[in-house]
Design a protein that fits this description.
By secondary structure, the chain is mainly beta. The chain has two domains: 244 residues, Oxidoreductase, molybdopterin-binding domain (Sulfite Oxidase, Chain A, domain 2), CATH 3.90.420.10; 112 residues, Sandwich (Immunoglobulin-like). Helix content is 14%, strand content 38%. The protein has five helices and 24 strands. A hairpin with a 2-residue loop joins strand 14 and strand 15. The longest helix has 27 residues. The chain is globular, with a radius of gyration of 22 Å. The structure holds ligand MTE and molybdenum atom.
């Protein structure tokens, strides 16, 4: 008997069995909170998110299908549809274009979902389905210019290599999302092959993922293999069934695809339940897809909002670190529980106010973050 193919098969099935287990354990060891092993869904506790960039090991993972392990040597990106010159690029060819780096926040549209009441359907995200990284790659607009978008085209579809069935239907579909031609050309999107100076990790889209700054991260297609330019409105599952706000307004059902990340501040220090004394620092990060954050305010026990100090120069799309020193010990009856809240406002005048509007799938839940600590 020829043992070659059998060995191959057993090695492949070993990979299939081992991959999800290893990635699950890696995520838990890095301190992430696991929601599901396959597809791999894990989030980062806020106290691990204080740095200006989030290491890949701690960066949340959000997947709909098993993770594909693509070989960087044989990987190709096909650009076709309504273009004058269809292209097929290898990783080496893609890397010959000028590279660009940018810091950008990726936040899942369902981040914060568990704070909605009544509960909204979907992955039970707390506040940690978000991270900020330095992404390096080639500008999407440059590649689309090279291919030459034909007049009349309206959308650009991005296809990932991962696939599977959805909603109990036997049909297998790929992960696909579209941008308008305007978004594709003007958003500053990158075909990213590196994250924080390292080659893209398998989990986060190896070898190349799309990164669309400012938009909820569902737009940032991982394991990118195809780009298709079209003049038809794209109605794929992840475009028109999921990742759509379903509002109830005045008795009428209103549907709207998720878009820009909503303005939000997160407290990364102190952590919930920490025991503190006297004067301490409240620190965190804040971001918005619409415009850079211009104001972060902190309130103690429902008291007045006080502006925090913003650190350094914010990048256009990375998150803003902030800090406020508070002397909680000076308060009357200072012992016991202290409620710390933080809210952000961006340069477009958007702020976190009241409760985000309930929607069936629980998107855009930019609730004001509250951390309860104990004063000694
Ligand atoms: N190919 C592919 N791309 C994808 C997804 C996916 O399941 N498959 N999930 C999307 C969603 S909903 C989010 S929030 C981000 C998560 O990116 P991360 O796992 O690198 O944090 O990837 C997006 N891109
Ligand atoms: Mo997401």
């Amino acid at each position: 008997m020829n043992g070659g193919p059998r060995r191959m098969a057993s090695r492949d099935s070993l990979t299939l069995l081992a991959g999800p287990d290893i990635r699950w354990r890696e995520a838990l060891r890095a301190g992430l909170v696991g929601h599901s092993r396959e597809p791999l869904n894990c989030e980062t506790p806020p106290p691990l998110l204080g740095a200006d960039v989030t290491p890949a090991s701690r960066f949340f993972r959000r997947n709909h299908f098993p993770i594909p392990e693509l070989d960087a040597g044989t990987w190709r990106l096909a650009i076709g549809g309504m273009v004058r010159s269809p292209l097929i690029l290898s990783l080496a060819e893609l890397r010959q274009f000028g590279s660009q780096s940018l810091e950008a926040v990726l936040e899942c549209a369902g981040n914060g979902r568990t704070l909605f009441s009544p509960p909204a359907a979907g992955e039970p995200w707390g506040l940690g389905a978000v991270g900020s990284a330095k992404w390096t790659g080639v500008r999407l607009a440059e590649i689309l210019d090279l291919a030459g978008i034909e007049p009349g085209a309206s959308e650009v579809i991005f296809r990932g290599a991962d696939r599977g069935p959805v909603d109990g239907s036997p049909e297998v579909i790929a992960f696909e999302r579209s941008l308008t031609v305007g978004e594709a050309m003007q958003s500053g999107a990158l075909l990213a092959y590196a994250m924080n100076g390292e080659p893209m990790s398998v989990t986060h889209g190896h070898p190349v993922r799309l990164v669309v700054p400012g938009l909820y991260a569902v737009a940032s297609v991982k394991w990118l293999t195809g780009i298709i330019v079209t003049d038809q409105p794209f109605d794929g599952y992840f475009q028109s069934v999921h990742y759509v706000y379903e509002w109830e307004r005045g008795g009428a059902a209103v549907r709207e695809p998720v878009g820009a990340q909503r303005v939000r501040a997160m407290i990364t220090e102190p952590g919930a339940g920490d025991e503190l004394e006297g004067t301490f620092a409240v620190r965190g990060v804040a971001w918005s897809g619409a415009a850079p954050v211009t104001l972060v305010e902190v309130s103690l026990d429902g008291g007045p909002w006080r502006p925090a100090d913003l650190a350094g120069e914010p990048g256009a799309h990375g998150w803003q670190q902030w800090e406020l020193r508070v002397a909680a010990g000076a308060r009357k009856g200072a012992q016991g529980e202290l409620r710390i809240r933080a809210r952000a406002t961006d340069g477009a005048g958007r702020t976190q106010a009241g409760r985000p509007e309930w929607n069936r799938l629980g998107y855009g839940g930019n609730f004001i973050h509250e951390v309860r600590v104990r004063l000694r």
